[in-house]
Amino acid sequence: QKEVEQDPGPLSVPEGAIVSLNCTYSNSAFQYFMWYRQYSRKGPELLMYTYSSGNKEDGRFTAQVDKSSKYISLFIRDSQPSDSATYLCAMSDYNQGGKLIFGQGTELSVKP
Amino acid sequence: GAGVSQTPSNKVTEKGKYVELRCDPISGHTALYWYRQSLGQGPEFLIYFQGTGAADDSGLPNDRFFAVRPEGSVSTLKIQRTERGDSAVYLCASSLRAGSANTEAFFGQGTRLTVV
Questions:
Q1: How far apart are CA A63 and CA A49, in angstroms?
Q2: CA dihedral (B22, B78, B49, A5) positive or negative
Q3: DSSP-H helix ranges across chain B
């Protein structure tokens, strides 16, 4: 079993839809939780990060962490075609120097 | 430069050959990470440097893989006797310092390695 599990999709939604992306993990030492967006043939770029449990909002994006359930989510409101990309969850135990453990990535397509 | 630079962007090599992949991190970033991303998968950690020293090389798959960062800036990932299974995108990331809260890692665009 992988440390971080993420549904690979692909996920296709109409423009304006609310998108929910999720990851589960097994390592209770993870303290930092991140969502990266990766466009085709590009490197990942950081969207959101959260420390420990709780919610964090940034514009149309909301990240949620539930450490008791070992479950994290990213919500995208009013999705746009420009949101079409692969979304990667990543986690870190900063006692290990910031090494990131990634999920498989979910491929999202937002149709106009 | 403004971001993490990786060269070459694409590399095709024959099985059994030696390859070097270069990463030029953001100026002033002391931590540097190498990841490998296979098709349809998330990046997998290989090694990270804090300054010149390899602080954690636990992700290197075998002794054919080696990385250096002699002056604490540019890093080179070296792969000996390449195998077809080494084909992947090799990503480099840098951050101001390793293991610190609120320290974002910035990724390069990767080197796409194809072993034929």
A1: 8
A2: positive
A3: none
Set of chain A residues whose Cβ sits within 8 Å of the Cβ of B48: 97-99
Give burial (CB, 10 Å; 0-12/13-18/19+) of B97. middle
CB contact under 8 A, A102 and B101: no
Give pLDDT tens digits for B7-52. 999 999 999 999 999 999 999 999 999 999 999 999 999 999 998 9
What's the first-to-final CA gap in chain A, in angstroms?
A: 37
B64 pLDDT more than 90: yes
Length of chain A: 112
Q: Is the CB of A97 less than 8 angstroms away from the CB of B50?
A: yes
Fill in the amino acid letter for B73: S
Q: Cα–Cα distance between A48 and A56 in angstroms, integer? A: 8
Give A66's strand partners. A71
Average pLDDT over residues A65-81: 96
